[in-house]
Predict the structure.
Amino acid sequence: MGRNLTKFVEADQPVKYMGGFDYALVHCPRCDDMAIRRQRHLTCGSCAFTDRLRREPKAKPVEPPQIVMCPECNRYVGTYRSDLRLQRLRCRGCGWAKEPAANRPWAAPKRNQWAQLWLETDFRGKSLWALNDQHLSFLEAYVAAGVRDVSPFNRTIASRLPAWIKSGKNREDLLRALAKLRARLPENIPPAR
């Protein structure tokens, strides 16, 4: 090859694990501009929207366990809580049995509580995304490198990348797609804390 390819050394990267990124760039649910998600908070600089993404669950009242007696011979059959699924109950004395109620039909999935990522695009039918500018720089360095020195363990970001990103045949197209993501970043991006 006539090209001079760079070398990617994973040990030199400032963040090696996905949990190491302090923030993510997302779409604001109110104005659809770029917002920042840090831990449990989402903050938009354009419309001053802020929200707790994970609200503390409301405390459910705890019901005491209910004792089930056989309606035929009045013997003890078992105990259960109404919040747990009722299992099959059988009386050992007379043989009376209570079958569990049919399962509820499948419910539609809950709306995703996380806002859509700001740095996300379609690449040949697959989702190419980056959490923030640091993650994007990591991906650009990895894709552009001809020689990749990565950890042999399956715990780092580079080891968890899909095969279509690791493949050298997609290098040029991926670099163009990553450049489009880079163009979406504002010039005055807030510093990482």
Observations:
- The chain has four helices and twelve strands.
